[in-house]
UniProtKB/TrEMBL annotation:
Residues 341-487 form the DUF7869 domain. This is DUF7869 domain-containing protein. Residues 1-44 are annotated as: Disordered. It comes from Parnassius mnemosyne (clouded apollo). Pfam families: DUF7869. PANTHER family: DNA-DIRECTED RNA POLYMERASES I, II, AND III SUBUNIT RPABC2, PTHR10773:SF19. InterPro entries: DUF7869. Coiled coil: none annotated. Residues 1-11 have a biased composition (Polar residues).
Amino acid sequence: MECLASPSTSGKTRKRTAHPENWKQNIAKRQRYSPKESPNRPRCQHLRKGVYKCESITMRDVMNFHAAFYKYHNKETQDAFLLKYCVPVIPKRKRPKNKKHHPKTIHTNYSIYSVSQKKKITICQKAFLGILNITKHRVQYIAKKFVESGGQAVKEKRGGDHKSHLFTEKKNAVMLFINMFHIDEAHYCRGHSERRYLPAELSINKMWKMYNKQPNFEANLKVKKGLFRKIFNNNYNLGFGSPRTDVCSTCILLLEKIKRESDEAQKQRLMVEHRVHKLKAKAFFNLVREERPNLKTFSFDCEKNLPLPKTPDQITYYSRQLYLYNCTIVEGSSKTPLTTQNVFAYCWTEDQYAKGANAIASIVYHRLMNTNLTDISTIRLIADGCPGQNKNSIMIAMCSKWLSSSAPDHVQRIEIVFPIVGHSFIPPDRVFAHVEKDVRKLECILRPEDYLEIIGTYSTIVRMGSDCEVLNFKSGMSSVIKDVGSWHFQFKHCKRFLIQRSKEIGNVVIQGEVHYTNNLGVLKKITRKNKKASDLNPEVITQNIVRIKPAKLVDVKKLLTTHFGN
């Protein structure tokens, strides 16, 4: 959803926020205004009946006064504390002892708050300075400046920021300009991110030029590129998006129609259509992330073909290559952490088996047969809607066979869910992202084992043929399952298939749904007359029966010869 840019309020900006309290000079400054030693009790021998009642204060009063002064380790706060208990007065009579001594311009009265007596007690200068462990020059300087300024507290002029206030007006103008740009959320982010993105064609340099070239713009508000960049980096968490790929075609079509449409009624209809499309996608992802005690979710998908050999030679682009196939199943919802215990990668090479519906159905069948389903009543299978591999009658037949003959008695239902086209991001895609990131780091990959070593870092490897047999469900189902055209629902438009145990032992009933949340269809059998789903007995497909075209083998040999020589 598009919105306008705004300053970051969470403290997370493009550039890391500075923490001045951790700077060495500020640490040294805090230590400078921290206590160096314990307070000294007054030993000036002033009697209780005199002007200075130094002997009347207790050690508790001394400790409390010392702690209150050093509570804050900055000069301004401590100076304000001193002015509270050091009262500067101008002497009424000035009687210097001789001509060498100048008359005093300021006289300071010192006092301390007594907790036991609950009042201020006047003490001498020596006692006051001994309690706080400070010099008389600091107190005299503060008192002098206080009197000269007419009763104003002394301001610290050393260090600090003395320039930012000069550019406040310019900063506000720049931020107002940035706030006018439309931003988008990350298209490829797998979680919630606070980073927002401006259009890919923009940059900080272009935005700075646009800012300074605004029509009717005041010259005194123009800024240098460095200041514009500093404001952008330190106040906003904005990036510049890359051109999007693999975007939903329906979303792009509807958004472009909305932009061009001038008729308000037609534009409203298109906006509603786009909104419904997004809600359907959201309903699908709600099913992917759903977790219940009696529900077991499996999501599966095929990674893009991994070429063998992988070499950096230029001729590779024009050469045909052999491929390693990887079909990954993730056990759990999208919220489940991905580990080698719940991620299973079924791998085989191009010459072993075809990458078709039989192989994918056999992989899902193997995983269902080898998973602990204790206390599970519903199995949910999630995959993309590729008709050649996942969304076909062969997958339905396999699930019917397993539920009717091999599933535990407490498993009553299988639900197969397919996404809205263009919104098919499921957990296996996260595994593929990790694998492909590691593959890109390697310049040469010559053996399937090199790929399997990378894939095995993120999953449990299952080898097709040796660990998992490939069954011929396609030929076995023809005599048991009706043709798709004879089913009681339109297969093409369905997004969910519900398979339940039938009252007839060894058989199942199936229901097709076009919605993700509402069940409007009816449960009926799809088996032929006098047949049950349990009658389906697929044969094992022999390994290494796939014939590689001779021209491809020639290309692979030529590629290896070019890279390594004869």
